[in-house]
From TrEMBL:
Keywords: Oxidoreductase. The keyword DNA repair does not apply. Residues 19-189 form the Transketolase-like pyrimidine-binding domain. The keyword Oxidoreductase applies. InterPro entries: THDP-binding (IPR029061), Transketo_C/PFOR_II (IPR009014), Transketolase-like_Pyr-bd (IPR005475), Transketolase_C (IPR033248). Its cofactor is thiamine diphosphate. It comes from Geodia barretti (Barrett's horny sponge). GO terms for molecular function: oxidoreductase activity. This is Pyruvate dehydrogenase E1 component subunit beta, mitochondrial.
Length: 336
């Protein structure tokens, strides 16, 4: 049957941000959806209030609090998905992957293959990523690249409320396990975007041209897309036209959208908040070097944090997260 159950943890919700309430509510009205939050005192609202109001609308049979035991509630989600439901699990921070990695990487990602395609795992896991919130090393990572290494998992990273709602809807409808990475910096931004009340989807595997340009491509992921858009404004003031690609889907990745932009601008700056080693930034730079080398007027540039744990100190943390100034400087280097 076509049920959706949501297992969640805790998070804070902000004004017109990446709250999951609207897409989950829309899906729940058209299927037997349910949600679980992993905190005994959240009363079905998840730690960052990502599912605020859903308990009142759909009841505790479908919106469930769970103990803070990631391996347990993620495993429950895998089992529920494999037996016919469409669970949504809230894994509060991506750093907790270490606790439930076996359930995601060995079970959710591989069951479909190990059963010869006879078993589907339509599981959606939403998790928080990103530094800049003074949450220290264990609660500030952006290690979505780990998920992209594993065949069988799909990975998306919204950048604004419109594509967040569409990606949630597409992820829940998908028959494969999907990891939705929500950058917590975006939850504090008030966006001037139109988010239709009716249901819609943003396709998995498709990037978006957030701003058209001709001189240099700035590629961002999640919150870094907003940084790229700010950098594009600064570059425009200096007479340069920057195109901004919002990756949105990390796996599958829209290779052709990236290459098409690079063929036009002949330069690319990849902005990624993940650690630089074995990262999306490195993978995309390799793609461009291999598939669009003859079009390049400058080597691909990467703007990433240093290869170190996220500092708790606010001044040091401010030096960790990529800034628009760093993006502008990298772009100008390619334009010299």
């Amino acid at each position: 049957h076509d049920g959706c159950h949501i297992f969640r943890r805790s998070t804070r919700r902000c004004d017109r941000n990446l709250s999951a309430t609207r897409p989950l509510s829309s899906w729940a009205r058209t299927s037997r959806a349910a949600a679980n939050a992993n905190s005994s005192r959240m009363h079905g609202e998840a730690p960052m209030r990502l599912t605020k109001g859903l308990v009142g609308d759909f009841g505790r049979q479908r919106i469930r609090d769970t103990p803070i035991a990631e391996s347990g509630f993620v495993g429950a989600g895998v089992g529920a998905a494999a037996t016919g439901l469409r669970p949504v699990v809230d894994l509060m921070y991506v750093g907790f992957l270490g606790v439930c990695g076996d359930q995601i990487l060995n079970n959710a990602a591989k069951i479909h293959y190990m059963f010869g395609g006879k078993v589907k795992v339509p599981l959606t896991i939403m998790t928080g990523i990103g530094a800049g919130t003074n949450s220290a090393a264990q609660h500030s990572e952006t290690v979505y690249s780990v998920f992209t290494h594993y065949p069988g998992l799909k990975v998306v990273a919204p950048s604004n409320p419109y594509n967040a709602k569409g990606l949630y809807a597409a992820s829940i409808r998908d028959d494969d396990p999907v990891i939705i990475c929500n950058n917590r910096q975006l939850m504090g931004i008030r966006f001037d975007v139109d988010v239709p009340e009716e249901s819609y989807t943003v396709p998995l595997g498709q990037a978006d041209v957030a701003r058209e340009g001709t001189d240099v491509t700035l590629l961002g992921i999640s919150y870094m897309t907003q940084i790229c858009l700010q950098a594009a404004e600064d570059l425009a003031a200096q007479g340069y036209s920057a195109e901004v690609i919002d990756l949105l889907s990390l796996s599958p990745m829209d290779d052709e959208a990236i290459l098409e932009s690079v063929r036009k601008t002949r330069r690319i700056v990849i902005v990624d908040e993940d650690y630089p080693r074995c990262s999306m930034a490195g993978d995309i730079a390799a793609l461009v070097a291999e598939e669009a080398f003859d079009y390049l007027d400058a080597p691909p540039k990467r703007v990433t944090p240093p290869h170190t744990s996220v500092p708790y100190s606010m001044p040091l943390e401010a030096l960790f997260v990529p800034t628009k100034e760093q993006v502008v400087a990298a772009a100008l280097e390619t334009l010299e």
